[in-house]
Amino acid sequence: MKYKAYKERLTKIADIGYSIALLGWDQETYMPEKGAGFRAQQIATLSGLVHENFTDKELGKILKKLDENPKKLNEKQRRNITHTLKDYKRQKKYTRDFVELLSRTTSECFQSWQKARKENNFKLYAPHLTKMIALKRKETDLLGYKKHPYDALVDQYEPGARVADLDVLFKDVREQLVGFVKKIAAAKQNDDKFMYLHYPKDKQWDFGIDLLKQMHYDFAAGRQDISAHPFTTSFNAKDVRVTTRISEDNLKSMIWSCIHEGGHGLYEQGLPDSEYGLPLGEAISLGIHESQSRLWENMVGRGLPYWKANMPLLQKYFPENLKNISAEQFYKASNIVTPSFIRTEADELTYHFHILIRYEIEKALMEGKLQVKDLPEYWNARYKEYLGIKVPNDAEGVLQDIHWSHGSIGYFPTYSLGSFYAAQFYATAKKEVKSLEGKIESGNMLPLLEWLREKIHKHGKYYSAEELCKKVTGEKLNFAHFMNYAKEKYSGIYNIK
Ligand code: CO
Known about the structure:
Elements: H1 2-29, H2 36-54, H3 57-68, H4 75-93, H5 96-119, H6 122-143, H7 149-154, H8 163-186, H9 201-214, E1 222-226, E2 232-236, E3 239-244, H10 251-269, H11 286-300, H12 304-317, H13 319-322, H14 327-333, H15 351-367, H16 375-387, H17 413-432, H18 436-441, H19 446-455, H20 465-473, H21 479-493
Parallel strand pairs: 1-3
Antiparallel strand pairs: 2-3
Helix pairs in contact: 1-2, 1-3, 3-4, 5-6, 8-21, 9-10, 10-11, 11-17, 12-14, 15-16, 17-21
The protein binds cobalt (II) ion.
């Protein structure tokens, strides 16, 4: 009976939470600009309701009872209770004063960041970011941690991830990937000029829809729209929205953002709706979520078999631009590796240097070893060291990301974890799905999706990221899989011996 009461409460909280998500989706897609003021108020009111309901003492009592009598529950129920109790205890650690101060600091910090980036003036941002970092250090004390203060923050995005493990991964990135990218830079470069011809919007849109259908993204349980920054949002497994953007002089932008969000969308559509509102009905972590988008975007969508399947269709949409381009040429052009300043525009290899730099900075800030005023200098020195480029100004350097201005410290590593998990999962899929890439080459994506559904999607949060990785691949996360994938693929593309 107590479990039923728990489930009812969580379902109600989810109903409000997903209504907030719907308002958020609308805000990014169709809301007229004058609607912004009251929309922010509506979202704040509902968010307050979620917080009130979730930190309700009655819920705390129910959780405690259930946790003390685990024999009355089955394994799935036990795991739901463990997750919710952990979240409940975490929420309870925040004092009202802290929450209010954080919320005020966040809005000031975000505004100063926008201005600073526009005017290329870090000094406008520095005092606010300094306050934010001090608060985040205080937050690590509130939340508590065993070894490293950063652990307390990263756990919110990637439960179970610890500095001790991340240090090993990023050491591998530094020692193995930096050298390999230098070899690529020294090799003969490929041409991708044809990607930047004129590609009319409506035809790109239609091609994107074709790609999503081919992935078996369910349009009866979702839809695609246009937004400034592509994203995926879900209101339940039967209503999952993706967005994309289209640039008429850059074919790459739509294609891979569309496949990327499609990968996120497939994960959400594959979660068990019998567990609606409960942890087991949700994704495991940001890293595992990102593994699903990047597996489709990079391992599949930037692979040669995929373009052997899809080049004829793409040529039908854009015969003038692409009639003389082979699938091999298109494949090479979609995998150009070159160091750049902007993280979101980076290729799938140098991308991880951008994350490595942010990880080192965040850790040093939380340790108190790095001061905000020294950030630009530190940032530029790392870009020189890892990417070999001179950052032209702070707007294209330390001011480029929104994350810190929102107080999101510990978020960045999940992007790299996503790619590394993706490579490891894909290596296993290739072993377990009979002639997987042959099937992709014939345009049949279903065997891959069914494998992902069975191994990953349908479990929701039943396993932790580490448990899932061991269960699916036989070992914990290991950077060697990403490195093997990178070497095999790019040695071919760039003729590296
Ligand atoms: Co993503």
